Amino acid sequence: MSKAAEIELASVTKRYGSAVAVDAISLRIPAGTYCCLLGPSGCGKTSTLRMIAGHEDVSDGDILLGNTMITQLPPARRGTSMMFQSYALFPHLDLIDNVAFSLRMKGVERTERRNKALEMLKLMQMDGYASRRPAQLSGGQQQRVALARALITDPEALLLDEPLSALDPFLKIRMRAELKKLQTQLGITFVHVTHSQEEAMALADLIVIMNDGRIEQAATPREVFETPATAFVARFMGDHNVVSGRGAGSADGLALLDVPNGGKFAATGTAPGDGAPIDIAVRTDRVRLRPSDTKGLGFTGTISNIEYRGASVKLSVDGAGIEDFTAIVDERSFFEKPASVGEAVPVSWDAGDAIVLGRLAT
Ligand SMILES: Nc1ncnc2c1ncn2[C@@H]1O[C@H](COP(=O)(O)OP(=O)(O)OP(=O)(O)O)[C@@H](O)[C@H]1O
């Protein structure tokens, strides 16, 4: 196998006509990293992946793989390999010929390329199916063949466009574990596009959260979970409540926030004292229902929805000018003293479980 290579994007922009799909993003993906590009539909993640692969021209900026500038190189000469969402297997070829295809294009002699294809099928535990056609395989098996085909050129980086989206939920979780294992085994850089927060959290060493052609945050899953950089990240990842208000200065290491109904909240960080708008994020899993002490921060609101989730219960609370404030409470403590929709309950959290969110420079 080839060595892993670092990928660097330097102020990369993609325009389609006058529309900006990717807006001057800069990113360094260290060699051997499992990187997930995550974001809602249309945020520019596929365009970014396709520019790294060379399937899409870069409008501005540069892309480096290791020390090589690859911006202008054709896909086959970049040292990257791409696995497509639909797998793009040839229906009329058996698995050996499917996997060997790019070597055939490169003029590699038949026995040599078939041997290499068999080796790749072995790596993916598909050698027992070598003479089958793609239609004779399950979805998960087709995906393994597509991976074998992408890996036959010994790429330094493997690029995966929504690789799990065609699989049913059960297989998705199994193949997810296999992808992670494969990346660890090969040690090469993986860049994986997904719109699933759960998938990115489960797989990535580095999550890159994109919105509207820009990077909102690039960090480890734990950093994204514990310290979302912006209100967009906090909302998109869904583990925090975002409360918007006006800065009322700082005291004792806490940022003070005036919320619209006249209430005061606090969070870890600093706040401007001039009433400028700021957002804070409150972790949904740290919110307490009917707190036994009064030390925490909080408000009294009306429960608008309750969802049972097995290990936990998710409550939506409206109050203090805040709609759909989410509290995830442990199921045992919830059922010790259940609450119901329409009931008014105090909710509370510690200042350490709320942080001030940043804003993207415009
Ligand atoms: N070939 C194209 N021509 C014109 N506009 C395009 C083209 N490809 C993408 N776009 C636009 O660029 C923006 C970013 O698209 P892109 O496919 O990169 O987003 P995405 O985050 O991968 O979305 P999805 O999850 O839906 O695939 C979108 O507004 C899209 O409509």
Portion in beta strands: 35-45%
Number of strands: 20
Quaternary: single chain
Estimate the global geometry from the Cα principal axes.
elongated
Task: Please give the count of helices.
Answer: 9
The CATH architecture assignment of the largest domain turns out to be 3-Layer(aba) Sandwich
Taking all Cα atoms into account, the compactness measure Rg is: 25 Å
Tell me the distance between the termini: 43 Å
Which fold name is given in CATH as the topology of the largest domain?
A: Rossmann fold
Largest sheet: 6 strands, mixed
What is the fourth-level CATH superfamily of the largest domain?
Answer: P-loop containing nucleotide triphosphate hydrolases
The arrangement of helices and strands along the chain is EEEHEEEHHHEHEHEEHHEEEEEEEEHEE
CATH class of the largest domain: Alpha Beta
Q: Strand arrangement, largest sheet?
A: 6-7-8-3-9-10
Name the poorly predicted regions.
Answer: none
What is the helical fraction, as a range of percent?
25-40%
Number of domains: 2
Overall pLDDT confidence: 91
